[in-house]
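chain below, 391 aa
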Amino acid sequence: MSAQPTTRKRIEYIDLLRGWAVIVMVETHVFNATLLPALRESGVFKVQTFLNGLVAPSFLFASGLVFAVTTRRKLHEYLSFRWPLFRQISRLLIVALLGYLLHLPKFNYYHLRYEAGDPAWRTFFQVDVLQCIAVSLLLMQALLFFTKTERRLYTVITGLAMGIVFIAPAIGDIDFAQWLPFALAAYVNGLHGSLFPLFPWSAFVFAGAILGYRYLRARDADRENPAGDATGNMMQWTAMAAVGLLIASFALHPFASLLYPQYDYWRSSPSFFLLRVALVILLCAGLFLFERRRGVSRSSVVTLMGRESLLVYAAHLMAIYGKLGGSTFADRVGETFGVWEAWLTTLVLLGLMFLLALAWDRVRKGPPLLKPAVQGVLLLGFLLFFFYGPR
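prediction:
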């Protein structure tokens, strides 16, 4: 139950991973919303699409890494039901709520109350990456209460992640809305439009938490023996294990397609999960090596975007798909852009997101009352717009 005390110094390679994920996420959404359909058939775009497909796994994986670090720092408070536990739970509930709010067909009470209809509400309850992260972390928080120690927690999580990965294809076509409310059934699989159901996507969060725990243990060993290099050795072995997972993903594929009656490689197959998690782990190990050898500047754009990844995630989606009054940017542009137009739009949006992240970073580091004051003003503004804004 006890843990080595740790400093509050940020672990930069985690911010680098989150920053990379959110930057590429902006590019992915811009291209998906604006690029001409004919250009999507090129080989270059297909390679780009595969690389973009690592964004969500990286985002989820990084959330697990952050959970491991936060839990180590606040383990005693979490297990003794002190204020940090309730603050953590409230934050995760807010993340889930934000995920739902981003699915609103229109940010207007009158529209929701009288015009939206059942199809819009079914879209509202679909599970996206934020809900997947929030519920996965809440589940680990609950498991910590029963397991009591980090070692037992991550042992259980390891078994749970493996079970989720190999069960996902078997339940991918089962309509759980027959037995569960639609809002809960949407968490199980993607049958009703959820892009990131818990099966198998929560396993990326769990995998990140497991790696985070192993890293923290290695860092503790380095503190006890400064002459050693337990963290470097751990990351080296982890990278080698990732290569093994990469090979296993290809070896497993022919057998998995025979094992599961309904087998969708791109949606829920264990083979594709192993491939993606292996690539994310290798990326994580590479960023760790980069931090160790090159260091990370305090003014790094990537780490700033990583620190403010939730804000950038929500803001860029609102900029592209948000319908505060009339039509969305995606609706106005349609799929009409060429490659250079899409890249220019991406760079402009990234610049705006950087300025937003920088502004919020300054607010957080400002006087103690500034952050809650800004949050209160923004919340009031959104509520007024929601209830009294244009229909």
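The chain has one domain: 12-388. The chain is about 75% helix and 0% strand.
thats it, cya
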